[in-house]
Design goal:
Shape: rod-shaped
Order of helices and strands: H
Distance between the termini: 127 Å
Number of helices: 1
Strand content: under 5%
Helix content: over 70%
Largest sheet: none
Length: 87
C-alpha cells in the first residue's frame, strides 16, 4: 500500500511539472502573440509611410509633365496668335 502511495505521489509530481511547463508555454505564447500584434501595427505604420514617400516623386513627375504640357500649349497658342496678328 505504501508503495502505491509513493507511486501516486511520484506521478502527481510529474503531472505538476507538466502542468507548470504547459502554463509557462501558454504565458510565453500570449506574450509572443502580443509582440506579433505590435509588430504588425508597426509594419502597417511603416508601410503607409513608405507608400507616402513613394508617392512624392510621382507627384513631382506629374507636376513637371503638367508644367511642360501647359508651356507647350501656351507656346503653340502664342505662335498661332502671332501668325494671325502678322497677317
Amino acid at each position: 500500500m505504501e508503495h502505491e502511495i509513493d507511486e501516486i505521489n511520484r506521478r502527481l509530481d510529474k503531472l505538476e511539472n507538466i502542468f507548470d511547463t504547459v502554463n509557462n508555454l501558454t504565458v510565453q505564447i500570449e506574450k509572443l502573440a502580443l509582440e506579433t500584434k505590435f509588430m504588425r501595427e508597426d509594419y502597417n505604420d511603416l508601410s503607409s509611410r513608405v507608400f507616402s514617400l513613394e508617392q512624392k516623386p510621382v507627384k513631382r513627375y506629374d507636376s513637371a509633365i503638367t508644367t511642360v504640357i501647359t508651356t507647350l500649349i501656351g507656346a503653340i497658342v502664342g505662335a498661332l496668335v502671332a501668325l494671325v496678328i502678322k497677317k
